[in-house]
Design a protein that fits this description.
By secondary structure, this protein is mainly α. 84% of the residues lie in helices and 0% in strands. It has one domain (6-138).
Length: 140
Protein backbone atom coordinates (compact mmCIF):
# COMPACT_ATOMS: atom_id res chain seq x y z
CA UNK A 1 0.00 0.00 0.00
CA UNK A 2 1.22 3.51 -0.84
CA UNK A 3 1.92 5.54 2.33
CA UNK A 4 -0.10 8.75 1.89
CA UNK A 5 0.11 11.53 4.47
CA UNK A 6 -3.56 12.55 4.64
CA UNK A 7 -2.83 15.65 6.72
CA UNK A 8 -0.52 16.84 3.93
CA UNK A 9 -3.26 16.08 1.38
CA UNK A 10 -5.71 18.20 3.39
CA UNK A 11 -3.25 21.08 3.88
CA UNK A 12 -2.30 21.04 0.19
CA UNK A 13 -5.99 21.15 -0.80
CA UNK A 14 -6.60 24.06 1.58
CA UNK A 15 -3.56 25.84 0.13
CA UNK A 16 -5.05 25.36 -3.36
CA UNK A 17 -8.35 26.88 -2.21
CA UNK A 18 -6.61 29.85 -0.55
CA UNK A 19 -4.60 30.39 -3.74
CA UNK A 20 -7.84 30.37 -5.74
CA UNK A 21 -9.38 32.95 -3.42
CA UNK A 22 -6.36 35.21 -3.84
CA UNK A 23 -5.82 34.51 -7.56
CA UNK A 24 -9.40 35.19 -8.64
CA UNK A 25 -9.90 37.86 -5.97
CA UNK A 26 -7.33 40.51 -5.16
CA UNK A 27 -4.60 39.33 -7.58
CA UNK A 28 -6.45 38.88 -10.88
CA UNK A 29 -10.16 39.18 -10.10
CA UNK A 30 -10.83 42.29 -12.17
CA UNK A 31 -9.06 41.13 -15.34
CA UNK A 32 -10.66 37.68 -14.98
CA UNK A 33 -14.21 39.05 -14.70
CA UNK A 34 -13.56 41.39 -17.64
CA UNK A 35 -12.25 38.59 -19.87
CA UNK A 36 -15.11 36.32 -18.80
CA UNK A 37 -17.54 39.19 -19.53
CA UNK A 38 -19.07 38.88 -16.06
CA UNK A 39 -20.93 42.01 -15.06
CA UNK A 40 -21.09 43.39 -11.52
CA UNK A 41 -24.80 42.54 -11.57
CA UNK A 42 -24.03 38.90 -12.36
CA UNK A 43 -21.48 38.80 -9.54
CA UNK A 44 -24.01 40.28 -7.11
CA UNK A 45 -26.63 37.75 -8.26
CA UNK A 46 -24.19 34.84 -7.75
CA UNK A 47 -23.34 36.12 -4.26
CA UNK A 48 -27.01 36.52 -3.40
CA UNK A 49 -27.77 32.95 -4.48
CA UNK A 50 -24.91 31.72 -2.36
CA UNK A 51 -21.91 29.89 -3.66
CA UNK A 52 -21.77 27.17 -1.02
CA UNK A 53 -22.45 24.34 -3.47
CA UNK A 54 -19.80 25.62 -5.89
CA UNK A 55 -17.22 25.91 -3.11
CA UNK A 56 -18.09 22.43 -1.84
CA UNK A 57 -17.49 20.98 -5.29
CA UNK A 58 -14.20 22.89 -5.58
CA UNK A 59 -13.08 21.56 -2.19
CA UNK A 60 -13.81 17.99 -3.29
CA UNK A 61 -11.87 18.66 -6.51
CA UNK A 62 -8.92 20.14 -4.61
CA UNK A 63 -8.85 17.14 -2.26
CA UNK A 64 -8.94 14.72 -5.18
CA UNK A 65 -6.22 16.62 -7.04
CA UNK A 66 -4.05 16.70 -3.92
CA UNK A 67 -4.55 12.98 -3.24
CA UNK A 68 -3.69 12.00 -6.83
CA UNK A 69 -0.68 14.34 -6.83
CA UNK A 70 0.54 12.73 -3.60
CA UNK A 71 0.56 9.37 -5.39
CA UNK A 72 2.35 10.84 -8.40
CA UNK A 73 5.02 12.34 -6.14
CA UNK A 74 5.63 9.05 -4.35
CA UNK A 75 5.97 7.10 -7.60
CA UNK A 76 7.97 9.76 -9.44
CA UNK A 77 10.31 10.34 -6.49
CA UNK A 78 11.07 6.63 -6.38
CA UNK A 79 11.68 6.60 -10.13
CA UNK A 80 13.65 9.86 -10.37
CA UNK A 81 15.44 9.41 -7.04
CA UNK A 82 15.01 12.98 -5.84
CA UNK A 83 12.96 14.24 -2.96
CA UNK A 84 11.88 17.36 -1.12
CA UNK A 85 10.19 20.55 -2.23
CA UNK A 86 11.92 20.68 -5.63
CA UNK A 87 10.72 17.15 -6.41
CA UNK A 88 7.15 18.18 -5.57
CA UNK A 89 7.39 21.36 -7.63
CA UNK A 90 8.83 19.40 -10.56
CA UNK A 91 6.12 16.74 -10.40
CA UNK A 92 3.45 19.45 -10.07
CA UNK A 93 4.87 21.21 -13.13
CA UNK A 94 5.06 18.01 -15.17
CA UNK A 95 1.46 17.11 -14.29
CA UNK A 96 0.40 20.62 -15.31
CA UNK A 97 2.39 20.41 -18.55
CA UNK A 98 1.11 16.95 -19.46
CA UNK A 99 -2.51 17.18 -18.36
CA UNK A 100 -3.76 20.69 -17.55
CA UNK A 101 -2.11 22.75 -20.29
CA UNK A 102 -3.11 20.54 -23.23
CA UNK A 103 -6.69 20.08 -22.01
CA UNK A 104 -7.35 23.72 -21.17
CA UNK A 105 -5.92 25.15 -24.40
CA UNK A 106 -9.13 23.97 -26.05
CA UNK A 107 -10.89 26.96 -24.49
CA UNK A 108 -8.84 29.18 -26.80
CA UNK A 109 -8.87 26.94 -29.85
CA UNK A 110 -12.54 25.91 -29.84
CA UNK A 111 -14.42 28.29 -27.54
CA UNK A 112 -12.86 31.53 -28.74
CA UNK A 113 -11.57 32.56 -25.32
CA UNK A 114 -8.60 34.97 -25.35
CA UNK A 115 -5.06 33.71 -24.75
CA UNK A 116 -4.76 36.12 -21.81
CA UNK A 117 -7.62 34.29 -20.10
CA UNK A 118 -5.94 30.94 -20.80
CA UNK A 119 -2.68 32.17 -19.27
CA UNK A 120 -4.55 33.48 -16.21
CA UNK A 121 -6.50 30.25 -15.67
CA UNK A 122 -3.67 27.87 -16.59
CA UNK A 123 -1.31 29.94 -14.46
CA UNK A 124 -3.54 29.34 -11.46
CA UNK A 125 -3.31 25.58 -11.95
CA UNK A 126 0.44 25.75 -12.59
CA UNK A 127 1.10 27.66 -9.37
CA UNK A 128 -1.45 25.54 -7.49
CA UNK A 129 0.00 22.19 -8.57
CA UNK A 130 3.55 23.35 -7.79
CA UNK A 131 2.43 24.65 -4.38
CA UNK A 132 0.58 21.43 -3.59
CA UNK A 133 3.51 19.40 -4.87
CA UNK A 134 5.95 21.21 -2.59
CA UNK A 135 3.69 20.71 0.45
CA UNK A 136 3.10 17.04 -0.32
CA UNK A 137 6.74 16.25 -1.08
CA UNK A 138 8.04 17.92 2.08
CA UNK A 139 5.47 16.08 4.24
CA UNK A 140 5.81 12.74 2.47
Amino acid sequence: MVPINYLAVLVAAIAQMVLGFLWYGPFFGKPWTAMMKITPEQMAEARAKGMGKSYAIMIVGALLMSWILAHAIIFASAYLMFYGAMAGITIGFLNWLGFVAPVTVGSVLWEGKPWKLWFLNAGYYLVGLCLMGAILAVWQ
